[in-house]
Specification:
The structure is a single chain. The chain has 62 residues and is an all-alpha fold. It contains four helices and no strands.
Length: 62
C-alpha cells in the first residue's frame, strides 16, 4: 500500500496564528549576502514569494 493512499490524522491539532500566505507576505526581503551563500534556498523563497530586491541581482550574477 502506498503511503499517500493512507489517511493519517495528527495526534494533536495545532492552530496557526495566521495563514501561511500571510506569513510569507509579511516577511521582509531576503538579504543579498544570505542569497549569495544559500542560492538554492533563496531561489525557492523567491519562487514562492516573488519580489524585486537586491537578492535577485545577486542570484543573477552567480
Amino acid at each position: 500500500m502506498a503511503f499517500d493512499s493512507a489517511a493519517y490524522t495528527p495526534a494533536i491539532r495545532t492552530v496557526l496564528p495566521a495563514p501561511t500566505a500571510a506569513l510569507i507576505e509579511a516577511a521582509g526581503d531576503p538579504c543579498p549576502i544570505w542569497a549569495a551563500e544559500n542560492p538554492d534556498r533563496a531561489l525557492a523563497l523567491l519562487f514562492v514569494a516573488p519580489r524585486d530586491c537586491a537578492a535577485v541581482d545577486v542570484l543573477v550574477s552567480l
